[in-house]
Amino acid sequence: MDNFKDKSIILAVPDHFGLPQVFKENLEFLGFTVYLVKHDNSKIKLKTKDSLIHLYKKTFSKNKTHKAIITALEKESPQITFLDGIESADYALVVRPDLFSENVLQKIKSKSNHTVGYQWDGMKRFPLAENMIPYFNRFFVFDSNDVKKYPNVQPINNFYFDYLHPKKEIKQDIFFVGTFMKDRINELLQLSLIFKKIGLKSSINIICSKSKYYKKYSDFPVHFTKSGMDFKDSILNTQQSNVILDFQNSMHNGVSFRVFEAVGYQKKLITNNPLVKNYDFYNPNNIFVFTNENIHEAEHFLKQDLVELPNEIREKYSFTEWIKHILNSN
After folding, report:
1. Using CA atoms, how far apart are residues 47 and 295, in angstroms rounded to an integer?
2. 80-130 residue pLDDT tens
3. In what order do the strands lie in the sheet with 223-225?
4. What is the pTM for the complete model shown?
5. Is domain 2-156 given the CATH code 3.40.50 in the classification?
6. Domain range summary for the chain, segments of one domain joined by +
7. Which long-range contacts (CB under 8 A, 24 or more apart) does 282-291 make?
8. What would the CATH number be for the domain defined by 172-316?
9. pLDDT digit string (tens) for 234-293?
């Protein structure tokens, strides 16, 4: 893309299932030179003193941020060393700023002409993010509740990555990958039985590190795994499926990547998130919003043909349009 040819960007994204690499590849596809600040998700064992401080604050002041602050500080040294090697960049994008130390964010800001933060987890769940807002020229959130509470943040949707050529070969009818959550497992299992009943091939992958939680579900047509799926592999599986499953996280008030992948990759979507009905891409032929009362209607929905969306609607929710919007300094 000519818009970003010869432009440079500092990218800081937590390493959730290979997500930084997908961000990097899509940015490079658009013409950016990308400086990727590495962030691993390894757990840090707190010193006894910090453990006691965290427990005290959590118990008596309801402040749960001390552990996150110490963890970020423990990880900052190689990040700052890497940033010291960068002369300057046109832009910087930090996803989940609450996972990086203030020293790192200050260093990123000093190296970038325009710095943008994106908090894609609710700030109620991760309150440390509020402290990080001053380090950015623009700070975006996807949870509508955060927009109402914090006047200095801006709303933005998630998106679908648009640098991978769509896979035409279909290898399964239904695809889902997500973590085990007690509040959604019964609906997920119920849907899996519906798919099996009508002869659909499904790939339902549930990430759960403790077998005690899922042993009793061994007779259901789902796959439990202790390790997650690489984000790029997830995209490829989505592209090679007819239908995507999506479950709303009760801790958030927004719309997930899966919804926009269904739009961008032209797939049908089954979700329990009613917010999708507020979007211009919503079509009941393409999207089934289920509840406990209507879940049995999934079988009828799956027999309906997909209604192709106009290109301008699909492009509107692409990563290309998303990055154009957030980096616009006007």
Report:
1. 49
2. 999 999 999 999 999 999 999 999 999 999 999 999 999 988 888 888 889
3. 223-225, 202-207, 172-179, 241-246, 268-271, 287-289
4. 0.89
5. yes
6. 2-156, 172-316
7. 283/307, 283/309, 286/262, 287/262, 290/187, 290/191
8. 3.40.50.2000
9. 999 999 999 999 998 777 778 999 999 999 999 999 999 999 999 999 999 999 999 989
